[in-house]
Design a protein that fits this description.
Length: 48
């Protein structure tokens, strides 16, 4: 079924949409991880 969707004339648009969504999710996860690390390191340096 997915192959039928991607082989349709709108397939390239759907692939582009999924690619953009995956990139945005990856960026969001990376930024969240960096924020968590910065928060944890700030908390540890204040305790010392």
């Amino acid at each position: 079924m997915l192959l039928d969707i991607f082989n349709s004339p709108l397939g390239s648009g759907a692939e582009l949409f999924l690619l953009i969504v995956c990139i945005l999710i990856g960026l969001g996860a990376g930024l969240s991880t960096m924020d968590i690390r910065n928060t944890l390191f700030k908390g540890n340096s204040k305790k010392k």
